[in-house]
Amino acid sequence: MKKLLVVLVAIISLLTLSGCEKITEGSYKEGTYMGSDTFTSYDKKYVTTAVIYVDSNGVIKSCYIDSTYIKDNINTTKKVLKDNYGMKETSKNIGVIEGGKEWYEQVKVIEDKVLEEQGLDWVKYDETGTKLDSISGVTISADSYIRAVDNALKQAK
Predict the structure, then answer these.
(1) 20 to 30 A from 142, CA-CA: which of 9, 11, 20, 136?
(2) How far is CA 125 from each of CA 85, 122, 132, 151, rounded to the nearest angstrom?
(3) Spatial separation of the C-alpha atoms in residues 109 and 31, rounded to whole Å
(4) Is 124 helix (H, G, I), strand (E, B) or coil?
(5) pLDDT at 17
(6) Which strand (E) or helix (H) includes residue 126?
(7) DSSP state letter for 83
(8) What is the pLDDT at residue 6?
(9) Which pLDDT tens digits describe the chain residue by residue (157 residues)?
């Protein structure tokens, strides 16, 4: 019984350690890259921008996504608006994210996933556009955000 316990602890330790592997070498060129995508919503044109920073080892170290938005006839961005963008209740009502999340909270999940996966290979597509089923905590339509990140990453290759 003790041997079985020791073996189980060893296996769990190996699995845990392998999941915490830090990425030290990537496949991108060092630099800061910006990509954008223009889209229309409710007869208004908006621009999504993604800024990607790649370190000297080719590793994506930061991903920043934001989108222009018009609120009360003022041009701003969704990240600037924070909670005033007003998506939390809609997100909550969809029923996927308990309590709901604001736009900036959901886009942070996408930014973190780009860092974790070192790119966009995790994004799935179907006839309606991008499917972000592989990450929880996102109910926003992400086509424009993914295209902006992809446009930035194309420059980094």
Answers:
(1) 20
(2) 27, 10, 9, 17
(3) 23
(4) strand
(5) 40
(6) strand 124-126
(7) G
(8) 38
(9) 444 433 333 444 433 344 445 678 889 999 999 999 999 988 999 999 999 999 999 999 999 999 999 999 999 999 999 999 999 998 888 877 889 999 999 999 999 999 999 999 988 877 777 767 657 778 888 899 999 999 999 999 9
d(CA 18, CA 47) in angstroms, rounded, equals 39
The pair of structure tokens assigned to 10 is 């060893």
Q: Nearest 5°: phi and psi at 127? A: -65, -15
pTM: 0.81
Nearest Cα residue to 62 out of 74, 53, 71, 49: 53
Nearest by Cα to 110 from 150, 54, 74, 58: 150
Domain coordinates in residue numbering, the chain: 25-156
Which residue shows structure tokens 């699995």? 15
Alpha carbon distances (Å) from 26 to 54, 55, 73 = 9, 9, 43
Amino acid letter at 130?
Answer: T
Type of residue at 75 = N
Q: Which amino acid is present at 19? A: G
